[in-house]
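Person: I have long wanted to understand how a fold can be written as tokens. Underneath my words sits a plain record pairing an amino acid chain with its backbone structure tokens. Those tokens are not coordinates but codes from a learned vocabulary of shapes. I should like you to check that the lines agree and flag anything odd. The protein I mean follows directly.
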Amino acid sequence: MLEAAADLLDEGGLAAATIAAIAARAGVSKVTIYKWWPTRGAVAIDAYFHRYRQTGTFADTGDIRTDLTGQIRVLIRAFRGRAGRIMAELVGQAQTDEVLAEALRTRWIEPRRAATAEVLRRAVDRGELRHGLDIAIVMDQLYGPVYYRLTMGHESLTPALADALVTSLLDGIRAR
């Protein structure tokens, strides 16, 4: 079922991955799908993670600029193809599908935020960043533009964006 749903997502996006289409492609009944997933969005998010396994781990080089830039580049690289277009659709659908929204938060956003928060705390402990930093806001400033470009499509996602975001952010929060 996950392969069928992932194939449909790849071929036609979220609009193509209906419960009926997934059931037909997988050779199962719609009831079988609903036995495992409460909504189409829930199937879609599981299919996405089944097809596009992404890591939220960071290198720990001891340099906050290198570590953050590397992680943003990994995210941008992941979002520069079909996986990004599907993620943009999932984010959009999550606005009206609470099951999908919760799955995105718990399975995608929270693990990445936890990893980033740890990197930022280590940088504070090393004296690279100032104490009292609002880590949640820093993460929003860092990742928000990536998701904004992903969902709005007004500018491209490039490796240079990672460099620009990290440089801009660090110039404002670096310890003096």
Notes: The chain has two domains: 2-49, 54-173. The two ends are 54 Å apart (CA to CA). The CA atoms of residues 117 and 135 lie 6 Å apart.
